[in-house]
Amino acid sequence: MQTRRRSRPAGARALVGLLAATGLLAACTGAASPATPPVNPGASASTSAQTPAAVTPAPAAATVVTVAWGKIWDRAPASFPLPSDAEPAQPVDPVVGPSSGAFTTSLGVDEAASGIEAALTTAGWSLQPITSGEDGSRNISAVGASPGCRSLVTVRPLGSVHFVTVYYGAGCPRP
Predict the structure, then answer these.
(1) Whole-angstrom Cα distance, residue 85 to residue 77?
(2) Gap between the Cα atoms of 56 and 91, Å rounded
(3) 142: closest CA among 162, 172, 112?
(4) 86: containing domain
(5) What digits encode the pLDDT tens for the residues 101-135?
(6) Residue 3 in this model has a pLDDT that exceeds 60
């Protein structure tokens, strides 16, 4: 009677896995290492390497959209006053639809709204009467340096996180 050796599929799988991991590591390491710039015979040495600006596309220019409140820019300027812990809302608040910016804050509605009001005033905005919603939200209407530059900021409660929605009017400088 002939004795057969039993194959070791687990050992073979481990070897294949090790080789795959090694290949993946090599690919990742190669992708992270500096690449040799493409050779361009007509360019000088200082212009043949790509600059980060050439590799990273610039953000699209802000555009005007129309919402129930009026015409707004589809983004607020980076300098627009927001609570110190404001983060872009992920996902965006589904209740409000398009806006110039949707953020979340862990500050209470009153604390966040008071901070935004103070920052808007310091930045030269004139505040209109503040209104409150039945849901506990606060609406802050403000006018910028020119009378056509209007903004509306709504701070709306939602559990332990609150939404801050900005409508930055189309009459304001392009962000």
Answers:
(1) 17
(2) 25
(3) 172
(4) 64-168
(5) 999 999 999 999 999 999 999 999 999 988 999 99
(6) no
Does residue 126 lie within any of the structural domains?
A: yes
Q: What is the DSSP string of 111-167?
A: HHHHHHHHHHHHTTPEEPPPEE-TTS-EEEEEE-SSTT-EEEEEEEEETTEEEEEEE
Tally Cβ neighbours within 10 Å of residue 163. Answer: 23
- Based on the structure, what is the number of domains in the chain? 1
- Going by pLDDT thresholds of 50, 70 and 90, the confidence category of residue 69 is very high
| 108 neighbors 162 (Cβ within 8 angstroms) | yes
Residue 16: inside a domain = no
pLDDT, mean over the chain: 75
Contact indicator for 168, 175 with CB cutoff of 8 Å: yes
Task: Tell me if 139 sits within 8 A of 43, measured CB to CB.
Answer: no
Question: Is 101 within the bounds of a domain?
Answer: yes
Q: Is the pLDDT of residue 36 over 70?
A: no
Give, as one character, the DSSP assignment of residue 77: -
Asked if residue 138 belongs to a domain, the reply is yes
CB 157 within 8 A of CB 164: no
Are the beta carbons of 69 and 168 closer than 8 angstroms?
Answer: no
